[in-house]
Amino acid sequence: MQLNNTSIQINQKLQSNEKATVSKLKNGQNSFEAILNNTVEKENKLQFSKHASERLKLRDINLSDHQLERIENGVTKAKQKGIKESLVLIDNIALVVNTKNNIVITAMEQTKENENIYTNIDGAVIV
């Protein structure tokens, strides 16, 4: 449920930012700059695919705000190194992330029972 609350908070923040942008546009203040900043901010936010959201819920994985921030930092580092499909390891949780689109593709816990084999990645970040 933590993820759902986090998603709601992120969506509320984005809606708040969109309202501020619309307000600036109505007032004629920095219209191009406001649109550009809003677009860039949306692109930089980490998103979860439907599949990843289902896996987090199914596997009862709850991510805190601090963990989400660490993941975003790890994705940024991976992107800077040219990694396109990254494995992000955080607190015994493994996430496969498309760094170009900032989308978490899937998520799983790292346990001794699992084989812990990750395919279709071209880099890994441990945060």
Percent of residues in beta strands? 15-25%
Q: Main beta sheet: strand number and arrangement?
A: 5 strands, mixed
- Mean pLDDT, as a whole number? 81
Span between N and C termini? Answer: 23 Å
- Stretches where pLDDT is under 50 for at least 5 consecutive residues are none
| N to C succession of SSEs | HHEHHEEEE
Q: What is the number of independent domains?
A: 2
What is the 3D form? globular
Number of strands: 5
The helix/strand class is alpha/beta
Radius of gyration: 17 Å
Number of helices: 4
Strands, helices and their partners?
Blueprint: H1 2-26, H2 31-44, E1 47-48, H3 50-58, H4 65-80, E2 85-90, E3 93-98, E4 103-109, E5 123-126
Parallel strand pairs: 1-4, 2-5
Antiparallel strand pairs: 2-3, 3-4
Helix pairs in contact: 1-2
